[in-house]
Amino acid sequence: MRKSHPKKTRDHASAGGRAPLGAQPAVAEEVQERAFLVGLEVRTRGRGGAKVTAQAQAARDAATVSTAAGAKSGMPAHAPAKSSTNKPSIPEFDAEESLAELRTLAGSAGAKVVGEILQRRDRPDPATLIGAGKLEEIAGAAASVNADLLLFDHDLTASQQRNIEKIVHRRVIDRTQLILDIFARHARTREGQLQVELAQLQYMLPRLAGRGVEMSQLGGGIGTRGPGETQLETDRRKIARRVRHVEQQLENVRRIRAQQRQRRESAPVATVALVGYTNAGKSTLFNALTRAAVLASPRMFATLDPTIRGVVLPSKRKILMSDTVGFIRSLPHTLVSAFRATLEEVQRASLILHVSDASSRLSAEQDAQVEIVLKELEAEKKPRLRVMNKVDLLDMEVAESLMNDDQRDDAGSEGTKTVYVSAAEGTGLDRLLACIDAMIEEDRVSRVHLRVPQKEGKTLALLEAKARIYSRKYKDGAVELEVEAPESVVRRVREWVVE
Question: Strands across the sheet with 351-357, in order?
Fold first, then answer.
């Protein structure tokens, strides 16, 4: 039977009404908070007069030609198909699917979902987002299931958050604050913790006003004159000071990373960065390719701290592969800014592996959201290889058809190649490594004929380790070899090259 700690729960809930879910790990471990989800569908008028959701319109605007690469023949029913205008139709998040994603986020934050409600409106209410009448209904529903907090699948202004809390008498957390809390729970390294703290401080700073009597402005009557600075101003000054301190520490992290990157770039070793929507299977793919032991979890944002490992390609060239944080729809800008030190690996990568979930009906819309973040990082023009993961979850005939099409070396409208794999089962990984090998420009591979004296044991061992050997003949105390080797190896054996 689970023990209850009512006092700790009450203290946690009363901390200004703004404490993140994971702010007190000791309490979160003992008492699982009960969350009531609130979704909002805002409808706007399309060109033809039909109503479409604002999210749907944003997804259409964000869709790029990279999504057209998936509109090839043989794609499963959920994949984007070409319309009569030759543009890919993008399946968007509808309100129910958006609420389902919020449900998954709540689970990643350690909350138990005890109820949910979806409100459809033509426009958001400026005071309470969903309207006072609907809010009274939600307050009753949340009370009936004894919910500790309300999670909104929408960003709230500071005044909206205060107004809602006055009516429901419970803590209210919006989508951005929930994502920040998940990041805080999952950050393990000092760098990750600093980046999350910076994002939380930047989120909190404009929301201090009106958070209670203790932060109100000084009055003008007798006994209300203070030392000349309000509590609100004091708190802003403290947070601003802490922001500068964290930014300085992160700048030190960036400097160290730049030094490490400079040392890596002095050798002809390419870096390949994995990007994609959260829970697309990036860490599972990373583990399968590098034999690493990075945490692979179905929970959202299981990976926050960057990991770099070496991978040997079929040409025997070595590359460095970087696993990065997953992206998500409406990823808070403060997080993108705070994690810039980590995401610099994406900016400096020679090749980007864009990992998508082939089994998701919304893979095209998710890809469009990834494009938004890549553009913000100014990395959208980097060489790209699209990896459709989780083909093991598709119908067997469809998966085989897709992988056979892949073997024909098809490309998208801008030459973006697509490879189909199952990281969990190891299917298609050899094909993926071969494609990476063909796209890496650093330390290009060439085919040469060599005549190496047999006494040159170190040179022969080097060729065995670093080159593909196609033929070998022993003649007159020498070894004649036909090899395919990287330029860095060819330079070391140049004196034995036979023109």
Answer: 307-312, 318-323, 271-276, 351-357, 384-389, 417-420
- Kindly write down the DSSP assignment for every residue of 205-271, as one continuous string: GGG-TTS-GGGSPP-SSTT---SS--HHHHHHHHHHHHHHHHHHHHHHHHHHHHHHHHHHHHTT--E
Q: Which residues, other chains included, contact 333 with Cβ-Cβ below 8 Å and sequence gap of 6+?
A: 376
Q: Around Cβ 445, how many Cβ atoms within 10 Å?
A: 21
Q: Which residue has the tokens 């030609």?
A: 65
Domain count, the chain: 3
Residue 251 lies in a domain: no
Task: Confirm if 209 and 18 have CB atoms less than 8 A apart.
Answer: no
Instruction: List the one residue out of 320, 316, 339 whose CA is nearest residue 328.
Output: 339
SS (H, E, C) 336-354: HHHCHHHHHHHHCCCEEEE
Span 73-113, pLDDT tens digits: 344 434 443 333 343 444 566 788 888 889 988 988 889 99
Amino acid at 88: P
Predicted model pTM: 0.70
Percent share of the chain, pLDDT over 90: 29
Look at residue 292 and tell me if it is in a domain: yes
Cα angle for residues 12, 14, 18 (degrees, 5° grid): 85
Q: What type of residue sits at position 48?
A: G
Question: Residue 291 belongs to a domain with what CATH number?
Answer: 3.40.50.300
The answer on 435 and 456 residing in a single domain is no
The answer to whether residues 332 and 182 touch, using CB atoms and an 8 Å cutoff, is no
pLDDT of residue 338: 67
Interacting residues of 498 by C-beta distance below 8 A, sequence separation 6+: 449, 450, 451, 480
Query: Domain boundary residue among 424, 439, 454?
Result: 439
Confidence at 308, pLDDT banded by 50, 70, 90: confident
Least confident of 115-119, 442-446, 453-457: 442-446
pLDDT at residue 214 tops 90? no
In three-state secondary structure terms, 389 is strand
DSSP secondary structure, 268-292, as one string: T--EEEEEEBTTSSHHHHHHHHH--
**254-284: pLDDT as tens digits:** 788 778 767 766 666 888 999 999 888 888 8
